[in-house]
Amino acid sequence: MNERIEQILNEVRGFKADSKEALENFRITYLSKKGIIPALFADFKTIAPELRKEMGMKLNELKNAVQEKVEEQLQLFESQQVDTFDFDMSMPANEMHGARHPLSIVRRDINSIFEHLGFTIAEGPEIEDDYHVFSALNFPPDHPARDMQDTFFISKDPSENKPSDILLRTHTSSVQVRAMESRKMPIRIIAPGRVFRNEAISARAHCIFHQIEGLYIDKNVSFVDLKQTLYHFVQEFFGEGTKVRFRPSYFPFTETSAEMDISCNICGGEGCNICKHTGWVEILGCGMCDPNILISSGIDPEIYTGFAFGMGIERIAMLKYQINDLRLFFENDLRFLEQFELA
Ligand code: DAH
Prior knowledge:
Helix content is 41%, strand content 18%. It is of the alpha+beta class. It folds into two domains: 2-83; 102-331, BirA Bifunctional Protein, domain 2. A seven-stranded mixed β-sheet has the order 1-4-5-9-8-7-6, with helices on both faces. Strands 2-3 form a two-stranded antiparallel ribbon. Helix 1 (2-13) runs parallel beside helix 4 (49-86) and helix 5 (102-116) packs across helix 10. The longest helix is centred in the first third of the chain and has 38 residues, at 49-86. The protein is elongated. The chain starts with a helix and ends in a 6-residue tail after the last helix. The structure holds 3,4-dihydroxyphenylalanine. Residues 171, 173, 213, 251, 254, 285-287, 308-310 line the site of 3,4-dihydroxyphenylalanine.
């Protein structure tokens, strides 16, 4: 009998059910009233008393082994059932919905053009201090240039009725300062990011918008490098043959300062509503870094020179896609968003 039990035990341990029915048959074969195990228990009464203890233990071991096997296989089926139900790899995928936001497309394309020129992407905080947004960029306290940008101040203690040092950055030029503080020479960065100004929302303005800042500092960087870099950008982004022109301007952190116009890509320079019939549209501010800002970040202007530029991503996107209302970028109307490139 011992051998018989050993043999059955081996069969039971090696058993694998390939279906639920096979498992049920297995259970019936061994455990049902007329099954193998009750029959063995019946035989048990006939064996010699001195062998009963050992046999009894063996029989119980066998019974437990069968019960465990049934449990184990049952669980296996249940887990497999979930798998096949949830992850049917042969099921056709859902049709892809959604498009990239136009601002993301434009930011990506601008980044990529400058990255090919060796610029790397830099970041800085949106909640900034006065130093990085204004003072280090040569905006003296109470200087009227600060009024060029209406600032949201974050007051640390609301009961103190004076503007705090902490504010939402009004331009990404603050990232210039952070780059000059933390990077080794030469510096060649672009900084895309969100900026905030206390302005009424209209077709042409918003209190939240996006800019891309550029900064290049090295030995012998000149205005020619600035012009050539921006000219290259315009040809790549707006297409070969787009004309550029530079007009003198003023920014506290650049000297010489300029604004750059491109020939209107909507009327091709003929004159239209977008270019106010001039044939030109302004796309960015730029200039040579004022020696003062280099000094305040510990860079010797006798050795190093640099240029900087800053542009609004919304403005560039409006020109590129001929969008005439800036609010469309923020309303998330699907009829607008669906017109852009799939993700
Ligand atoms: N920060 C300026 C603005 O928000 C844009 C700008 C102008 C950035 C000239 C520059 C620059 O880096 O050189 O209006």
